[in-house]
Amino acid sequence: MRAAFMYGAGDVRVETAPDPVIVDQTDAIVRTVRSCICGSDLHPYHSAPRTAEGRPMGHELIAVVEEVGSEVRTIKPGDFVVVPFAFQDNTCVFCREGMHTSCLHGGWYGSAETGGLQADLARVPLADGSLVKVPDVDPATADEGLLASLLTLSDVYLTGYHAAHMGQVEPGKTVTVIGDGAVGLSAVLAAKQLGAERIILMGRHTVRTDLGIRFGATDVVAARGAEGVAEVLDLTNGEGSHIVLEAVGHMPAYEQAYGIVRPGGIISRVGVPQYEEAPIGFGSLFGKNARLAGGPAPVRAYLEAAIPQVLSGQINPGLVFDRTVAIDDVPAGYRAMDDRTALKVMVTP
What we know:
Order of helices and strands: EEEHEEEEHEEHEHHEHEHEHEHEEHEHE
Shape: globular
Number of strands: 18
Structural class: alpha/beta
CATH superfamily of the largest domain: Medium-chain alcohol dehydrogenases, catalytic domain
Distance between the termini: 10 Å
Strand content: 15-25%
Radius of gyration: 20 Å
CATH topology of the largest domain: Quinone Oxidoreductase, Chain A, domain 1
CATH class of the largest domain: Alpha Beta
Number of domains: 2
Mean pLDDT: 97
C-alpha cells in the first residue's frame, strides 16, 4: 500500500509500505475512502527532528471495513465507517464519562505500531469501540460533499464542537472564536448550532472569514494582539465575551483569549498548545474568576449524534475542505496548507 511518512520538518514522503494485518483479535483493517491533512500535522511539519525512519502520518479517515478480528462483534466487512482520530474501547470508566481520549486502553495513530491514516489501508485497534458505522450510505456513489462532511466528523468539526461544548455555549451567550483555520471555523458552526446569540470570529483571511460568516459568525475582527482585544471589548461594550474558543494553540492566541474573556467567563482551548506554561494568575484568569477548559476532543462521544446531522443536511462542515489531492500528492497538500493557499486538504486513494 501507499502511505505518507514524515522524515523531519518539511519532509513528507509517500512510500510503499506493507499492508497492515490483524495484530489483536479486536482489530479491524479498513480501506480508505477519504483521509485528510490536519492543522495539527503542521506542528511537526515545522519542527520535527530529522529521523532515518519516517513517522507515519494522518489521523482522520472515513473508510470501508475490509477485515475484522475474531473478537469484533459490532463491525463487519463492507461497513462504511467513520474512524475517530484516537482509538478507544468505549467501555472503560473514562469512556463512559465521555472522555474517550483518556481511554485506559486507547491510544493515538502515528506510531510504528499503529501506523498512520494517510494511507490506502489502516489497522484500527479496538474496532468495536472506535468505529462508528454510517447507515444507508454507499461511499462509491455518495455525493462528494457528503463524504467531505462525514470526514470532518473524524476530527475537525467535532473538535470545534468539543470547544463549544466545553465552553458551555448556549442561547444568549456571546462567543469569540480565535483562529480562522478549519477548527476555528468548525467552532463557529458548532457555536451556532448550540444557540450562541453573537459569534465574533478573530481572523484575517477574508476567504476563510467569509465562510465563518456563512457558518454563523456575526462579527469579524481581523486585528491581533492588544488591538484585537480592544476591538472585541469595544464590540461587547467593554464587557468581554462570555466564552472564548481558542483554536490556534500558540501563546499569542492564549493571551488574546484571557484579554477578551469577561469576568466569570470560560476559555475553551482545542488548539494543541505549543507551549508548556501559560499565565493563570491575577492578571489573566484569577482576577476575572475565569475558567479554563478544553483539550483533545473525545470525538467518539459525539459521533452518534453528529452523523444524522450530516446525513439530514442540518450541518455541512465539509465546506472547510478547499483542495483535494491524490495520496501520491500528499506532500504538495502539506505545502499548500503550510503556505496558506489551502484551508484544509482532502486526500483521495
